[in-house]
Amino acid sequence: MKSVPTTLRQLMRDRSAALGFFLVVLVVVAAILAPWISPHPEAVWDMNPANRLKPPSRTWLFGTDRMGADIFSRVLFGARITLMIALVAVGASLLIGVPIGLWAGWSEWWIGEALMRVSDVFLAVPQIVLAIAIAQTLGPSIENVILALSVTYWPWFARLVYAEVRALKRETFIEAAIALGVPPRRIVLQHVLPNVASPIIVRASIGMGFTILTAASLGFLGLGAPPPAPEWGRMISESREFLPETWWYALAPGVAIFIVVMGFNLLGDGLRDVLDPRLRRSHDR
Amino acid sequence: MSVDTQPLLRAEGLRRHFPVRNAFGVTTHTIKALDDVSFDLRSGETLGIVGESGCGKTTLGKMLAGIHKADAGRIHLEGTDITSLSVEERRRIAQRLQYIHQDPGNALDPRWTIGRSLDEPLAIHTALSRPERLARVGKILASVGLPESHLDLYPHEISGGQQRRVGLARILTLQPRLVILDEPTSGLDVSVQATILKLLRALQAEFQLTYLFISHDLSVVQIMCDRIAVMYLGRIVEIAPSAELFAVPRHPYTRSLLSAIPRIGGRRVTDTFTLEGEPADASNLPSGCRFRSRCPQVAAVCAKQDPALGPGGSAHQAACHFAGETPGGGHV
Predict the structure, then answer these.
(1) Stretch A16-20: mean pLDDT
(2) How many beta-carbon contacts under 8 Å exist across A and B?
(3) Between residues A65 and A279, which one has the greater pLDDT?
(4) Is A167 an interface residue toward B (CB < 8 Å)?
(5) E strands, chain A, where?
């Protein structure tokens, strides 16, 4: 692994990667500071029919929704829900997928191969379809959205790590470690894992964007966090009744989703260029 | 057998066949990478293994090192059969028997510093504390002629010759008895080759090492080895003390190899080289002697009978029906 400062410096040299990094930081900061930068923190959850469907103005930056809540504040607080869902789902997928991939790729035992066939089944069906099925069955809640996303996203990591480990196993330095008498567990954890860390990080970053998009879709379909949680997907869904007159209602959460997903994708692409060992040489020299 | 004459390593009937499968997973034929290889290695000597690419030299080295498993045959190290050990016990053997890869740059983890790579064998095989390990690494580093500042560098930051020194240092930290050197000079320019060979000699004396020296470079093998085994298509076809092998080669394959060494003032290699064509397909060996398709002295018996190494018990053995009677007149 390269050191974090080196990686960052190289990332900043690439304009689109720097933009992605900036957008992600922007969303993360917004989520963390939501209670302080929100102009109407009280108007996120409360019903206030008097202020219903107000267009954007100096008081209501992005306008208000059908309950009279401040859309700007709701978008800020929505960032927290979105990031939390994506972080937990991608984290859980990592925790499930990476060990399975490492083990299946290293041992080449039939059970590992069988697990890989299971992951093929998951990968063959679009993630959103499986996630809808799971979320629908379990009922709408944030926990179930996270569960649905984790269960459907781990095969990506398992598959990726599996392929990388299979390739690494034939590397001379792994063979040398075997000849040196290094125990397999140590080889996998200290030699193999650090060498597959880069593609895992890249996939995790792109996976964040992907997961946020799927989570928003679930929210849009009413399978996400129940009202009145400020979930972006559901905010867009609610706005449909009032379109096209109240254009601001859908605009703010839509742009928010766009920004965060694009941010993670650009960041992931940039990280791939900087970290991926197969491309690293051309960047170093 | 007394302790003195017991070989450090004894290989008996080593065999490794790689199955070739068709699209349906059915084995259609096998590639005989190693086919019944036996030899003894005495403590303190250097045994050279020579042969063309694909003759099984590297497979043999990796099998002795425990990277490849043997399909059949036994390997005895200091009297213990190491092929029948449990995985755990076999791993501990690595302390006494070490293998150096052909490509030492790639044999080091690209993400590890030299220092960490050198520390690893000690961390696994010994109970030494960290300062003790550091001291030992420092000492070995000095014996292979590298400055201590190299400990913080990464493999790609040092030259090919230095990578080889690191490769040597890495296994010497464990103070092994036997070191298998796979093409230790390939890919180095001649001056670096010479320093590496000198270093190998010095280390052999300093640490009482026994070398199995795998190479295709006959002139290097001639300088370095006490005895030489010539391999052809997975089998040892001739084994003899170095000087004798070069003076009176008995196997026609050895003779043709020797005639292929270019010599200043000698005859042109193109005039004396007697071998024609490529080695037979290892997955489809000819009947009888595996060399007969290229042998200049082929006779009727060669197609019928596979010659064994002989005469048994002798220091100079060859696997040819005519080894006893073939002209031994040297190679130039």
Answers:
(1) 91
(2) 59
(3) A65
(4) no
(5) none
